[in-house]
Universal stress protein
Amino acid sequence: MEEQQVPARFERGTDGPKVIVAGLDGSESSWRAAAYAAGLARRQNALLALVYVQPYLPGGAALGVPVAEADTGVAEQLLTEIRTQVERLKGVFQVRWEFHTFRGDPYNGVAMAADQLKADAVVVGASERAGHRFVGSVAVRLVKAGKWPVTVVP
């Protein structure tokens, strides 16, 4: 019996990422990365997952500093700024978005978020810290992991 081949059918608008993860830490480059990711998400009709990784500060905890409260404050500030920008652009620039926070090392947090959210793409800002030339930035580590397409925004 001979197999019949069904011609491939082009489906407009169904290719491309469905979930785009953008790392956000409040730096200028992370805001630019979030804006770039929002544009991609809008054009692809994808979900934009904005991710903030709350760093552990073991030294601060040892000194009695309420670490969890300080980190939650940063996350709340970022969420307030995101909501302000989304409201400002309402009706002009629509995008589906979520905000997630994770705890830990920024690379591991973004990687875990991308895995859990089944990200098709990851967008991060270029590191603004001088020491990352020696240690390696989150962006470089994500690219080297080779699990997702990674866009690094300057």
Observations:
- The two ends are 58 Å apart (CA to CA).
